[in-house]
Each structure stands twice: as C-alpha cells, then as structure tokens.
Amino acid sequence: MQIGRSKNAASRTQVVVLTADAGFEEQARVTFGASNQIALKVIAGALPAIGGELDFADTTVAVLDLDATRPEEMDALSRLMTRIGSWPPVVVVTQSFDENVARTLLQMRVADFLVKPVLPVELVRTCARVAMGSPSNEARQSQIYSFLPAAGGAGVTTLAIQCAMTLLNSAQRGKSPTCLVDLDLQQGACADYLDLEPRLNLSEIEPRPERLDRQLLEVMLSHHASGLAVVAAPNRPAEMRSFDPEVVTRLLDLVSTHFDYVVFDMPRTWFSWTDSVLLGSDKLFIVSERTVPGLRHAKHLVEAIRERLGDKPKPRVIVNRFEQKLFSSGLRKSDIEQVLGDAFAACIPNHYALVREAIDRGVTLEEIKPGNKIAIEVRKLIVPESAAKGRTSEDNEPARRLSLAH
Prior knowledge:
Layout: E1 13-19, H1 22-33, E2 38-44, H2 47-50, E3 61-65, H3 71-84, E4 90-94, H4 99-107, E5 112-115, H5 120-131, E6 143-149, H6 156-168, E7 178-182, H7 190-193, H8 202-205, H9 214-219, E8 222-223, E9 229-231, H10 245-258, E10 261-265, H11 274-279, E11 283-289, H12 292-309, E12 315-322, H13 333-340, E13 344-349, H14 352-361, H15 365-368, H16 373-382
Parallel strand pairs: 1-2, 1-3, 3-4, 4-5, 6-10, 6-11, 7-9, 7-10, 11-12, 12-13
Antiparallel strand pairs: 8-9
C-alpha cells in the first residue's frame, strides 16, 4: 500500500492516520482537514491486517490508532517499527495506558503516544512536535550516561561532572556539545559544584508544557566557562513536591535531541519518570562507596533494575573513593569484583583533598590538578565506549524519546 504525496501536496506536511475507529477517523479528518498546509491520508483498518503493506514514503508523521491490550496489535507495531526504522516518527493512539505499555512503546522508539479521548489541539501539537525531528536533523544522536547513587554521599555529582567534562573534551578537534542534567530537582548540587546560577524553572513550564522548545530551553540552560551546558533547578529543600512527569520527560527529550552527549546526575529517590530515563540510557552507572553496606545496596539496586526494566539498561557499579593500603584489612578490589560479578565497572581512587578543594572553589578537578588519578580512571571508563570510536553512519539516527506518561 503506497502512501506518497501528490504533485499538489508536494510542499505540504504529510500526515497518515491508520484507524479502525470510525469516531477517531472523523475526528482526524476534521482536525487536520482545517489546514491547507496538511495533506491527510486516512487508512481504515487494524494494524495487524495491513501493517505489512504500509509504505510511509514521503510521510511526515504517522498516527497509528491501536488497542495496546491486544498482543497481536503490539506485535504488529513492533514489526512495523523494526521495518521502517527511524523515519517517519510514529504517534500511537490507544484507549488504555499503564506503565508496561509505556515501557514497551519506549523500547520500540515510538516518537510519542496519546490516550483516548484525545483533544484535537493535543493531537496537532504532538504531531507538530515530533515532526520537528526531520530527516535533515538525524545526524545527531545523543549518547546518554546516567549516574545513580546506591547510597547518599557516594560522590555521584563529582563523577557525573567529571564524566561530562571528559565527553566535552573528547572530540579530536574542538569540543563535543555536552549537557549535564541535574535531576535532583529539589536538592541538586551540580550548579553549586560548578559555581553556576541554576536557571531551570519547571513551575513556569508546567502550566503549558507545549511551550518547551529549543528557545525556552536555551533560556533555562546554565553555561560553564568550559563550554559545558548545565540544566539545574534552584534548591527547594523544604518544598517536598512531585513534578509533572510529562514536563520532566519533555525536557529530557528536548535535551537529548540537541546535544551529542547528555549526562544525568540522578537522585536516589525513584520517581515516575525514572524508568524512562534509565531505559533511555546508553550507559547506566550505580555509584557506591567502599563499604560492605554500600556494596550490598549497589548489588540489590542492580538486581532491582534488572527485574523491573529487563535487559535493556545494563547497570554497572562504580566503587568510589577506593583505597587499598598495604597490609590493610579492608575490602580489596578482588573482593569487590567477586561480590559484584559482571556488574562491576571500576574503582575510582580516593583523592579527598582534591575533590574538596574543587567543590569549595567551584571548579573542575582538572583545573586544580590536570591529569589527576580520578580524571584518568573516569576517562578509561568513558572514552573507549564513546568518543574514542568516533561516529559512524549507524550512529546517525534521531535521539531516543524519553517520553513516559502523557
């Protein structure tokens, strides 16, 4: 089934809607038919019956109406997403929603999804937003690194900053666009560690999340002298509140679209959007201290993530502030490797005085001591899996979508 554009529609936005719901079909015709800039193609039927015949050549956005509770429909969607790859962006419309559906759609790399009943303006805005990631912009794919603490005070922020600085300076020529995102939205420390003014104001975005675009993001970015972009919110330690997951995931989606590398400094608390962040991560590091309780917490967290999210995120444990003194009775590296097994990533040496001075002065570790041991170990951990390999044509696909609940 060929879906292409006619000569008269050559310069118009091509929207394809597949639905077996007569009511939704009528809504789509009314919603998109009001604009002369949109060429609408409606296909009546269920995805399992005709999904293999669909050809989305020249399509700008595909809207697929399906029943997410029916395995045959989700299987058909999975086959279609595998076949069409990264273009066009697909918006799924379904009448049911739960965390498992959201997780499955995220893993399929669906651009976005909506739950019936869908407001016409919401449908239009969603299609417009996902269409902005046009093929001409596909050359940038964010590599996402997430740092999650196994216990408080394990040094996650220091390692996240060092990772971001390593990635920023990883290009052979110039700097790689890199963004550090402090996801502890109430008590984060990234801005303080780098002596920056936190500029993220989620309260301003929440009433109208559709306003969040590249221009507004730029207003809410803090910029370090090194060239590192930082997303951080002002501390609100006495204001214990939860943020709208749609706002958070739209923010992360936008960030991941505009930077080569994104580093997340994760809070220890598990929020409604945590699953989507971890699922969207290329590298997930759990940071522990060199103590028996710390390693136990890290191992339990690894097991919990694997049980909750499956095999997609592969959490690995970094043991921070590691010291092995001669004739010491403390934990040895071999002991740590035995406890953690294949989840072990690295031991980062203890250099307390250096870290404390960097924090107090609001500078990076290498501004105080270039080539320090912490920076060397982080580079060994990060660069071989990212910048050292360079980009290939296989890397040129749109940034992953982090959207979870809409």
